[in-house]
Amino acid sequence: MPIVAKDGKKPNDTFVDQLQLNAKAAINKLADLGVGDKKRMAVGGHSYGVFMTANLLAHTNLFAAGIARSGAYNRTLTPFGFQNEERTYWQVPQLYYEMSPFSYADKIKTPILLIHGDSDDNPGTFPINSERLFNAIKGAGGTTRFVFLPY
Do 96 and 86 contact (CB within 8 A), yes or no? Predict the structure, then answer.
């Protein structure tokens, strides 16, 4: 789902809004084509796609389930930028908070399967990301499962 700069702002300044609009458009198109049921859509991804998946589950009621493999959910733990975000946490702390699905774990009520390799050495997606989001969702009463894969 493309996230672009608009109205003179940086792309991530309107990340959640754009993500919601993209998801609604994709779901509507699939339904219009007759290949998707709006009430039974799932969303999933890997790495940055998981970041989007968790944000969609935190900020919309568009999906019936989510599958998230090897993601980063708390952007304050990547304080020197991520993806196309070049500003640091200290320059835009509110943005880092708002873009972190971990900040809204209590809002994730759609069932989500979290999957992570137990030896993931990517500094942006250490396994603790999935462990902490799992604990936060479960602790807030959400429906989640967590699977650690070897390596």
Answer: no
In one letter, which amino acid is 123? P
Quick one: which of 67, 53, 81 has its CA closest to 116?
67
pLDDT (tens digit per residue) in 48-81: 999 999 999 999 999 999 999 999 999 999 999 9
Task: Establish if 87 belongs to a structural domain.
Answer: yes
| Residue 144 belongs to domain spanning | 37-149
pLDDT at residue 126, as a whole number: 86
At 149 the three-state DSSP class reads strand
pTM confidence score? 0.94
Is 97 a member of any domain? yes
Find out whether 31 and 19 touch, Cβ atoms under 8 Å.
no
**What is the SS3 string spanning 101-133?**
HHHHHHHCCCCEEEEEECCCCCCCCCCHHHHHH
Using the predicted structure, report yes or no on whether residue 83 has a pLDDT greater than 90: no
